TrEMBL record:
Keywords: Hydrolase, Metal-binding, Metalloprotease, Protease, Signal, Zinc. The keyword Glycosyltransferase does not apply. InterPro entries: Mito/Outer_Membr_Metalloprot, Peptidase_M48. Pfam families: Peptidase_M48 (PF01435). Binds 1 zinc ion per subunit. Residues 1-20 form the signal peptide. It comes from Nibrella viscosa. This is M48 family metalloprotease. Its cofactor is Zn(2+).
């Protein structure tokens, strides 16, 4: 290498190295790579760990709790949905919320059960399962692992599911609870729920009324479920229009 080329090389090389070391670019690069190479099974395994963390953090209704008994009755025919085995639990807090994770865990909060009918609860569950079936939950989990957990440990456990630390898990759980899906993902999850209700002989309008109830909950202390699922009224109208066009509503 002649002298000029060598100087140019140093000129461009030194800042790049300094930036990577100070700004964590190398770490971020490794994390992105590790998250991208996780298998579906690994993502499900990490999701299960995150749910176990949330089950330890929230008050879970026991088998004899009236809320759990009601949920069991509602979902009795739906232990497997679209080939995915589902495990259900109720969190006994006033939050109006529900979520599903990539491992097939569905968690319904007491506050949601308090304001919704059985079929509306099924409509919400159908929507959340829609995110799992459509792989939105898997992608959200990959994103959570990348952003909230130091992913380097995962790269070295290729092919297996490493045990996440308590702080990693709580970061992942917080990220998942605050995760926002895109508008298109929400629309597709709504469509999944609509089909789920229809093929099981429920009223598809339960999806519309569940959104209308959520829309009414606005104002102070807007529940998380609302903030991550915007435009409840528009989505209810969309469901009603479709039901009318299919002769399922007036
Ligand atoms: Zn959603």
């Amino acid at each position: 290498m002649n002298r000029i080329a060598s100087i140019l090389f140093l000129f461009f090389w030194i800042p790049a190295v300094a930036m990577a070391q100070s700004g964590g670019l190398v770490e971020a690069g490794k994390a992105a790579f590790a998250a991208a190479t996780l298998t579906n099974e690994q993502v499900a395994g990490y999701s299960r760990q995150a749910v176990q963390q949330m089950d330890a953090k929230y008050p879970v209704a026991g088998p004899n709790d009236p809320y759990m008994q009601r949920l069991n009755r509602i979902v009795n025919r739906h232990r497997t949905i679209s080939g995915i085995p589902i495990n259900y639990k109720v969190y006994k807090t006033r939050d109006i919320n529900a979520f599903a994770t990539a491992d097939g865990s569905v968690r319904v909060f007491q506050g949601l059960m308090d304001i919704m009918t059985d079929q509306e609860i099924l409509a919400v569950i159908g929507h959340e399962i829609g995110h799992v079936v459509n792989k939105d939950s898997r992608d959200a989990m990959k994103s959570a692992l990348w952003r909230a957990a130091g992913i380097n440990a995962l790269a070295s456990t290729s092919g297996t599911v490493g045990k996440l630390s308590r702080s990693q898990l709580s970061g992942v759980a917080d990220y998942l609870l605050g995760a926002k899906h895109s508008r298109d993902q929400e629309t597709e999850a709504d469509d999944y729920s609509y089909q789920f209700l229809k093929r099981n002989g429920y009223s598809v309008l339960a999806l519309a009324t569940s959104f209308e109830k959520l829309a009414k909950q606005g104002g102070s202390g807007v529940p998380q479920f609302l903030s991550t699922h915007p435009d409840s009224r528009a989505r209810a109208a969309r469901v009603r229009n479709r039901a009318r066009s299919e002769g399922l509503a007036r």
